[in-house]
Amino acid sequence: MAQTTEGASEIVEDVRFNFMIDEEVRKHTVLKITNSILLDSVGRPMPGGLYDPLLGPIVKQAPYKSCRQQSFQCPGHYGHIDFVSPVYNPLLFDMLFNLIRKTCFFCRNFRAGKEEVNVCTSKLMKIAKGDVSGAKDYVINNSDAKDIDLEEIEE
């Protein structure tokens, strides 16, 4: 008897992408890139470099050193580089620029009123708990602002 999946759809309704934290990146990689030299004097990949065989063979017919599969069977392997200082993700630069613009360089606080900060904090707490619709209820407007009790939200 054939198995069927009810409710299966050929239409993609939702796709989400997230950024991994450092520990997740390290967990999913097969190699820490430690060598800036790509090839040795005779053209062989240097261990710990960007052409390290653990990341994939240079020749298509050769099997992957990590999984022993051929290139058409293997989805690929990733490496990671540990930087000495933080590096900004270029995809997040606009958001970072807005945060910097809204930050006071002397006191390192946001340039916003206390009420606006409370509303934003409350929204973030609601979102962190999975209550996105509840977060939408908060309004940043002195006359229409909902009373915010941070202890109630934290519980």
Short summary of the structure?
The protein is mostly helical. It has helices at residues 22-28, 93-101, 114-128, 132-136, 150-154, and strands at residues 31-32, 79-80.
CATH superfamily of the largest domain: RNA polymerase II, clamp domain
* Global outline: flat
Mean pLDDT: 78
Overall CATH architecture of the largest domain: Irregular
- The helix/strand class is mainly alpha
Strand content is under 5%
CATH class label of the largest domain: Few Secondary Structures
Number of domains: 2
Number of strands: 2
Low-confidence runs of at least 5 consecutive residues: 142-155
The CATH topology annotation of the largest domain reads as DNA Excision Repair, Uvrb, Chain A
What is the share of helical residues? 25-40%
Give the termini separation. 50 Å
Radius of gyration: 25 Å
Strand and helix order: HEEHHHH
Main sheet: strand order: 1-2
Largest sheet: 2 strands, parallel
Number of helices in the DSSP assignment = 5
GO cellular component, one term: RNA polymerase I complex
Enzyme class: transferase
Family: Belongs to the RNA polymerase beta' chain family.
Keywords: DNA-directed RNA polymerase, Nucleotidyltransferase, Transcription, Transferase
